[in-house]
Amino acid sequence: MKTAVIVCLHGDEKYGLEVTKELPHISFFIGNPRALKENKRFIDSDLNRSFPGNPNGNYEEKRAYELVKELKDFDYVIDLHSSSNDCPVFGIITKPNKDKLEFTKKLGLKRLVIMPEFFSFGKALIDYIKCGISLEVGPHERKENVDEVKKIIENKNKNEDIEIFEVIEIVKKEQENIIIKNFEEIKKGQVIAEGKGKQVAEFDFIPVLVNEKAYEGILCLACKKLYKLSKPNSDMKKEFKVTPYEVKGKIDYNKLAREFGIKQMPKLPPMFNENVLFRRGVVFAHRDFERILDALKNKKKVVLMTGLMPSGKFHLGHMLLAQQFIFYQKLGVKLYIAVADLEAYNTRQVSLEEARKVAIDQYLLNYIALGLKPENCDFYFQSERSQDAKKSNAYYRLASNFSRYATFNEFKAVYGKISPGKMDSSLLQASDMYHAQLPEFENIVPVFIPVGTDQDPHIRIARDMASRFKGYKFIPISATYHIFLPALKGEGKMSSSDPTSYIAMTDSPQEVTEKIKKYAFSGGQATTQEHRKKGGNPDVDVSYQYLKMFFEPDDRKLKKIHNDYKSGKLLTSELKEILIEKINSFLKHHQQEREKARKQIEKFISH
Ligand SMILES: [Zn+2]
After folding, report:
1. Which of 340, 442, 549, 581 is least crowded, fewest Cβ atoms below 10 Å from its Cβ?
2. How far is the CA of 365 from the centre of ligand 1 (A)?
């Protein structure tokens, strides 16, 4: 592995010359010798905007051409810089990949900034190196620069976590006095510079290179924090995994809430307490839900947005969500229910006809049977938003416009593997979440989404895009988070792709009995004798959890089951019998309602 270090690519960043004297065993290259001699940033043009160079061009273009040749055989290149502003040490890369992140980690850097093409136009030195990183070490004349760089080059800095930022926009300077600091988070609406007037932030961002002299007219580069690159076996990853595509292991909800930056539910008005999902903490966390509670209290309009993925069978896990939005509909909240048929088509190989059929047979019928009413409910398909062209145009236009406010790396950070289909789905989903606020629909209105925690990345990326949106001031979308209904076998959540993980709304009494007896994870002991002596653990027992979340609304009866099971008085087989009976009597009634519901379908999808 060969590493080269470039110093004085800008001739006025002279500390680099000192570094070369201190580390004789390193391969150094002087970037711009003539500018260094004349103590200037450059002679004809900025060298770091002159790559890959031109043998017949101006001084810097010729020099760039030579440098590319000289550096051809090096695997790693560190390009040293300093600044006129007081940014702390950070690395800069373009086109991130695993090698560059690993290299950053090896150098022990705490902060890494990803530069987009719109800033350096793909003409920086590091664009022409296999694995190149630029280092911003601090102000030009700072004494510590040399020592600090020495430590970095010799890999003496130890650091486990790297904070990664990506430049999303260049903020132009409109007022003289800049009052923000590098890497200190700025909120939308905050004053960032003053003079004859005030300049306020148009969106949330983290500033770097604030008031850098070399960038004339630029106030700073606005970044978004992407994610932390931490050691691969940090607690979170070892114990459980929650992404929009995967829920695994035993989930620590407090840890999850901390990781995602969501809050415990606030104190709720009395009407919420009548619903077991709120009373028993199944809905346990939120983002900006106070705004929704305020609007409800003041009898202002509120929209609840939800979506369904039309694949597989409708099961108890889906009911957990349906019960929430039906509860809100009764409180007077307007519902927007999106059938994600385009997403199913683009990412799950489902035809639009199939998606439509599943959405109606599996989802809509069950929603109606559970009490969904056609009034104050906008049930739509992504592939066919509205018969009203103005509305339809507004919805698809918004999805398209959102693409301007997200970066590829953001998608990668949120989704891991990203494909054009997933990206398109994400943009459309953001429009699902925000289009209610367009003038063609409800106009500016508070909107919220009840979701499982695994859906939070979708909400974060939509909120980020909407916050950067120019020309229209969206209210950030609020959300509530419910715990997952555990899969029958106890680990992870119910999944449509594994029939032994769920109870479907169309299961027969025999199927329910068999599934519970055979698969429902038990918190009991191995033998009856042992169980009587030691008792069971209701907190991990799936049958008890189902009773708690749905089937035993009476708190006193539930408490008795809890205590009897814990003391060993109630056996696992007896607990399972209680649940089987409850589910079967619920499903018997539900399946009758489901048949009646067929007559109502038209009322939901005729608009
Ligand atoms: Zn420089």
Report:
1. 581
2. 64
Distance, CA 74 to ligand 1 centroid (Å)? 21
In the reported structure, the alpha carbon of residue 545 is separated from the centroid of ligand 1 by a whole-number distance in angstroms of 60
Strands 206-208 and 198-200: unpaired
| Ligand 1 centroid – CA 60 distance (Å) | 14
Distances 411 to 13, 423, 452 between C-alpha atoms, Å = 36, 7, 20
Distance 82 CA to ligand 1 centre (A): 5
Q: How far is the CA of 81 from the centre of ligand 1 (A)?
A: 4
Q: Which two tokens stand for residue 272?
A: 């919420």
Tokens, residue 187:
């909120």
From the CA of 166, how far away is ligand 1's center (Å)? 19
Domain boundaries, the chain: 3-175+222-229, 235-482, 499-598
Measure the CA–CA gap between 424 and 573, rounded to whole angstroms.
48
Determine the pLDDT at residue 433.
98
* Residue 236 pLDDT > 50: no
Pick the CATH number of 235-482 from 3.40.50.150, 3.40.1410.10, 3.30.420.40, 3.40.50.620: 3.40.50.620
pLDDT digits (tens, 9 = 90+) for 277-301: 999 999 989 999 999 999 999 999 9
- pTM of the entire structure? 0.74
Distance from Cα 66 to the centre of ligand 1, integer Å: 19
Which residue reads 């993980």 in tokens?
501
- The region that residue 601 occupies, defined by phi over 0 for left and psi between -120 and 50 for alpha, beta otherwise, is alpha
| Yes or no: domain 3-175+222-229 corresponds to CATH 3.40.630.10 | yes
